[in-house]
Amino acid sequence: MLDYNRALEYYQKALLMQRKHLVPTHPARATSYYKMSCVLQLLGELDSATYYARLAFKQLQHTSVSHSRINEYKKRYDELFQELLTQRIQAFEINSMSRETNQ
C-alpha cells in the first residue's frame, strides 16, 4: 500500500535540509516542491498541491541556470490551477442551486 503521508513527510524533511544547506535558488528545492505537489494531489489536497506546483515553477524561474524542466513545472501548475478553478466553480454552482431551493 502506498503511504502518501509518509512520502509527504520525507519531502518536507528534505526541503528543510535543502533550506539549511543549499542556496535559495538551488533547483533541488523546486524538485521537492514539485514532488510535494504530486503527493498532495494524490491525497486530494488540491489547494496545497496547486500552491506547491506554483512554488516549484517560481523556484525554477529564479535559478541561475536555465532548467530543462521549467516547462513541465509550469504545465503542472497550469493544470492544477485549472482543476482547482473547475472544482471551485462546481462548488459555487451547487451552493447557488441549494440556496435557490431553500428559498
List the helices and strands and how they pair.
Elements lengths: L3 H18 L5 H16 L3 H16 L8 H33 L1
In short, what is this structure?
The protein has 103 residues and is mainly alpha-helical.
**Shape estimate:** elongated
| N-to-C span | 47 Å
Rg, please?
Answer: 17 Å
**Annotated CATH architecture:** Alpha Horseshoe
Spans of at least 5 consecutive residues whose pLDDT stays below 50 are none
Describe it for me?
- There is one protein chain.
- This protein has 103 residues and is mainly alpha-helical.
- It has one domain (4-102): Serine Threonine Protein Phosphatase 5, Tetratricopeptide repeat.
- The protein is built from four helices and no strands.
Task: Tag the structure with descriptive keywords.
single chain; 103 residues; mainly alpha; Serine Threonine Protein Phosphatase 5, Tetratricopeptide repeat; TPR-like_helical_dom_sf
